[in-house]
Amino acid sequence: MPMFDVYPLYDVTPVSGKGIHVYDDKGMEYLDLYGGHAVISIGHAHPNYVEAVTKQVSELGFYSNAIQNPLQQQLANKIEALSGCKDYQLFLCNSGAEANENALKLASFKTGKKRVVAFTNGFHGRTSAAVAATDNKNIIAPINAQQAVTILPLNDIQGVKTELEKGDVCALIVEFIQGVGGLDQGSKDFFEQVFALCKLNNTMFIADEVQSGYGRSGKFFAFQHYNVTPDIVSIAKGMGNGFPIGGVLIHPDIEAKYGMLGTTFGGNHLACAAGLAVLNTIEEENLMDNVNAMSDYFISKANTISEIKNIKGRGLMLGLEFDFEVGDLRKDLIYNHHIFTGGAANKKLLRILPPLNIEKQHINQFFEALETAIKKVEQTAN
Ligand SMILES: Cc1ncc(COP(=O)(O)O)c(C=O)c1O
């Protein structure tokens, strides 16, 4: 049976990983500045992670949400301690899309309304409401198009005001740093005014931290760079370092009812063990400090390369913008320099999403390779 062919693939077959590196089936080492799409937070095969997941699977990998699972509360407590987000409630699920789907559903349950406001170039996942709130017509099937969604440009505060004042908007969902779209951010004023408008109009303010959360922006959550308190925060990617886990942080004003949300696999024992190992490692290894130090170092190196026209993003969620499309550059980096980077909807942007424990030597290696690769791509174009 062939695989349903939806992914354009690079011809590389990683079979193992360690720290910032993965190794292919021929033993070739690759520097991972893509983190498997912002998923690898504490590095590949981190010993804490391997030990915790191995121990848990040998004891109890899974039981349903019909029994007591103290690991869930431990995970919730640890998220609260590291994020400083006091008083939220946690619902656990399996992916970013599912986190946003539940977030939007909660907003609708809470307000009794059904229209969503989202933003140009935003990406929130591929499930029903999440994909409808995503600004990409190619991935919205007719069945998803029945959702009422209004997409506005970032920083269009008048547009947000006009839409919210119509009174039918249950949720405004936003990435504080856009991922797939290409690392754009709204202004501080915009985010803070949007937050105030949501409060005034009984609209739930949803921070999609699926990609920007878990320390990647240099704070635990990217929204913490601003003076806002979201009603709902969705999380996933870095949470399990590759183990599928997602979650929704829910403000206490939203009351739980039995049966309101649910999932078979969400919050299972193995997922919680993976999630706890990630947070313990972020704490023990001061990875958020490392994110800030390595981000400054990366940006200072990027500033010395004239072909880089713009540096976007924050922390270790960065984009290098060129005045040419970067497809060939990425290929050259992979096949000739053995370095993984990411692309974006903005074709001129190279995305950098490394594990949070990256070191200066890896950044140096990247910039040496990048300079050679840029020259080669330029020569080929001329
Ligand atoms: C900001 C954001 N939200 C949601 C998602 C969807 O997450 P998943 O692919 O785990 O469903 C993504 C995935 O790239 C994302 O970047």
From TrEMBL:
Its cofactor is pyridoxal 5'-phosphate. GO terms for molecular function: identical protein binding; pyridoxal phosphate binding; transaminase activity. The keyword Disulfide bond does not apply. Gene3D superfamilies: Aspartate Aminotransferase, domain 1, Type I PLP-dependent aspartate aminotransferase-like (Major domain). It comes from the Bacteria. CDD domains: OAT_like. Transmembrane segments: none annotated. The keyword Lyase does not apply. Keywords: Aminotransferase, Pyridoxal phosphate, Transferase. Belongs to the class-III pyridoxal-phosphate-dependent aminotransferase family. PANTHER family: ACETYLORNITHINE AMINOTRANSFERASE, MITOCHONDRIAL, AMINOTRANSFERASE CLASS III. This is Aspartate aminotransferase family protein. It comes from Hyunsoonleella flava. The lineage of its organism: Bacteria, Pseudomonadati, Bacteroidota, Flavobacteriia, Flavobacteriales.
